[in-house]
Amino acid sequence: MGGGGAERQLAYLLPLLAERGWDVRLGYLHDGPNLRLLRDANVTLYQPKHQDPRDPRTAIELFHYLRRVRPDIVQTWLLYMDVAVGAACRLLHIPWVMTERSAGPMRHCRFYRNLPRKYIGAGASAIASNSASGDEYWTRVAGKRAKRVVIPNCLPMERFKNLPDPVDARIIAPDEKVVLYVGRLDVEKNIETLVPALKEILSKRSDVAVVLCGDGPRFPAAKAALKNGPGAARAHVLGYTPDAWSWMKRADVLINPSHFEGHPNTVLEAVALGVPLVVSDIPAHRAFLSDDSALFAPTTDVKAWVSRILAVLDDPQSARHRAERARNIIPLFTPDAMADAYDQLYRSLLNPPDA
Predict the structure, then answer these.
(1) Strand stretches in the chain, DSSP E
(2) CATH fold of the domain at 158-332
(3) For 252-277, how does the pLDDT look when each residue is reduced to its tens digit (9 = 90+)?
(4) Range list for CATH 3.40.50.2000 in the chain
(5) I need a labelling partner for 166 at 20 to 30 A (CA). Which of 9, 54, 81, 87 fits?
(6) pTM of the model
């Protein structure tokens, strides 16, 4: 239950399912910021004694827990549980919903760790994707064997009200423009394009500060690169921070250069906060944004990214107009709409029409 967007969406969902009459139990391996959102919710928390996904005892303990509790339905949210708990559900004949939080060939084809998920997931009772591209992947893999639905992420607007200024705002001069990245620093997030583009922005513009919020395997390399060269003093690589939303409030532009996404939390949150966007030209972004509401850049074209970012900084009025148009999508993604969709999915599995 770390600080990622997938975990945050789960923390939004579970209390709403409890309100709809479900006895909700969350099995998790590791504590984290998003678990705190559930401390006062009507959700039973279960953490196995063994928490190392590489330790077979972890999967065995989860299997015995499921056999003892015999839940009416199980939903898994992230890769390890998809494999360990998904396999247990199939062995125990428990209805199982697998959740596809992302999409794209890098996740599903190039990493050997996803191969077990592919074959186990194809036998799920249902697969709930948060994007059309995720659903398309499982259409190819599972065909008609599993029921498939698309349930987008939600935007809990009440959480975006009255945000404080970022705790570290003093590191930015009041008249500096802020280019913000929020997300995991890893290969799928296209760090190889992000960092050179930001370095060029820093060298071209002395009135711009760059802020990166997020952790991951590429964090040390990204920090070292941005802290070396012109404008290094205006590069702030903060790691994971609970102030990400507050930084959006301060930002002049948020960028998301991902190679692929599901239904990107960070971009949705920036939309809710009215932040101008420059995003990669991929189907996941085009699914809810248009040329009237954001600027798009070819994924690996560094010069194009620099050009689009500078276009936002140099024409803030047009950028604000695009951000205002982007906010028109907000009514589509309410927490209640997401919870209702999962509630209906569970009930359809437990009480099929032809039963």
Answers:
(1) 24-27, 43-46, 74-76, 96-100, 126-129, 147-150, 177-182, 208-213, 235-239, 253-256, 277-280, 295-297
(2) Rossmann fold (3.40.50)
(3) 999 999 998 888 889 999 999 999 99
(4) 5-154+334-350, 158-332
(5) 9
(6) 0.84
